[in-house]
Structure formats: structure tokens, C-alpha cells
Amino acid sequence: xxELPEVETVRKNLTNELLDDKIENIExxxxxxxxxxxxxxxxxxxxxxxxxxxxxxxxYLIIYLGSLQEDTKKVLIIHLRMTGRLLVINDNTxxxxxxxxxxxxxSGRYLDFCDQRKFATMALVNKGxxxxxxxxxxxxxxxxxxxxxxxxxxxxxxxxxxxIKAILLDQKLVCGLGNIYSDEALFRAGIHPQKAGEExxxxxxxQLFSSIKKVISEGIKERGTTFSDYRDSYGxxxxxxxxxxxxxxxxxxxxxCKNPLEKIRVxxxxxxxxxKCQK
DNA sequence: GCGACCACCTGATGGC
DNA sequence: TGCCATCAGGTGGTCG
Length: 279
Known about the structure:
Elements: H1 4-18, E1 22-28, H2 39-46, E2 49-57, E3 60-66, E4 74-79, E5 84-89, E6 99-105, E7 110-115, E8 121-126, H3 150-158, H4 164-170, H5 179-189, H6 202-221, E9 262-266, E10 269-273
Antiparallel strand pairs: 1-2, 1-6, 2-3, 3-4, 4-8, 5-7, 6-7, 9-10
The structure holds a DNA duplex.
């Protein structure tokens, strides 16, 4: 499922391919993915706009669309959720069976938005309003940015009775982590995912802070993790799955202590831990 | 206000 | 072989 490293990989791919290309038309096959507009209005407002810039906030992909009229620039906010994919298509010989929306580009290519489970979303706002969009407005700092500070992180943990895993998935204290990277970060920090935030020591917070930065940086470097569904914009798999130490390895042996890993449920999510290494 | 839980959704998998 | 139940998970909404 796309977390920060996967979305960042897609952003880089799309930037390489689509910058300055023009969206000439759009066909929408699943209108429920549009959060704040009708299909007709969406097509009217997005068609004939140039892709000026592609950014990212947490797991949200932000596509800036230019216009001849400076005051009507639009921003497309996309969340891939679990199975969303944005694919640059050069020919129409093989259409994905989960195609939900197709952008027809001036270059003759298509940008296909595919989503097996129909959870992915798109919203269209005026430029400048993207940071106020629900879901984005309350996001915490990016783990690889200077805004992510140990002191603030530790204070945030101490305020919460929630499990540390629930806190990491919540996106408010730090954004971009999902099930895979939170399990990996907690294992590397030696922290049990069910431990309450308020019970995390300063030393544990420091270890977790470092491991979050490390797994996210490694994930970006490896172009994300492909566990089942994720593909980048060229249809390629990521590489971080080769570096996973716990996620998806239940019943296999821990690389550190050689005891079997266990799968438990924390924050309503399947969670893989080493019961010996994580306290 | 906070935390826990559920719905959304489809494909894969396991059990019978 | 075929059917059915369960599981996977990010986010927003609801409930206590």
C-alpha cells in the first residue's frame, strides 16, 4: 500500500514524465472517487490545463494545474489509499481492469488512475487552498524534514494514552507512515507497538525518532515497498521489501535474536513483532 | 476531547 | 471443484 516513500516515488516518476504536458480531456469511470465535485464539473475545470508542478504532502499527491487566467489555477489532490496507481500509458493495447479515470494528454499518452479496491480519492481545489483541505490541514511534519523535531515528537507522545502504533498511524504527530513503515520503525527501535505513548521514555522516543527517519529514507531510496499491490508510474515494483525485518514475516525467525516473529492486532491493524526484541 | 471501532471495497486465501 | 467466510488496510465518521 502506498505510504510516503511510495507516493514520493510516484511523484518523481510523474514529474519526469508529465511536467508541461497538457490535459486535453478526461473520462471518469468511477465517480465516487471524486470528493468535492461532480464528474462534469471536474472534466470542465481540469481539461485544457497544463501540469505545472507535482508535489506531495504526506501521502497526498498534489498536482498543480496552470491556466491562461492566473487567478483560476487549480490543484488536484490525490490520495492513493491502499491500491491506487497512477500509470503513464504510451499505448492503449492493454487496459487495466481497475481503470477508474483516464486523463488524455496532448503528448498522445494517457495518465491512468487505477484502483482495485475503490478507496482512492481525488479532490479539486483552487491554488492556495490545498493546505486547508481536510486530511491535509491536520497533518504532522514530514519525517525527513527539519520540521520533525525530537522534542516536539517526545512531548506529543507523552500527551497520548493511545498505543504508539496508533499514534504513528494517526498522521498528526508525524505524517507519511502506514502499517509497513510503522512496524519496521518500531522493531528497529525495540518498542512494543501496544505500549502507550505516555509510557515511552525519552531514550525510546529518541530511538524511534531515528528509526522513523531511517526507514522512510531507505524506503525512498529503494523506490518504496511492493508487498502485494504497489507499483510506480512505470508499473515497476519497489525494492524496500528486500529490507523488511518484520512486516510480512510472521512465524519466520527474527534477524536479531533468531526467535519466531508473531502477528498480533494493534490499532485494528495486523502487526508483526518480535516478542523478545520489542518491549 | 479522546480513544475504540466500523464502513468502505475487491481479490486472495483457507476451510469444508 | 466450488462455495463461503475471513483477511488485508487508510481514512473519516460514529459512538461511548
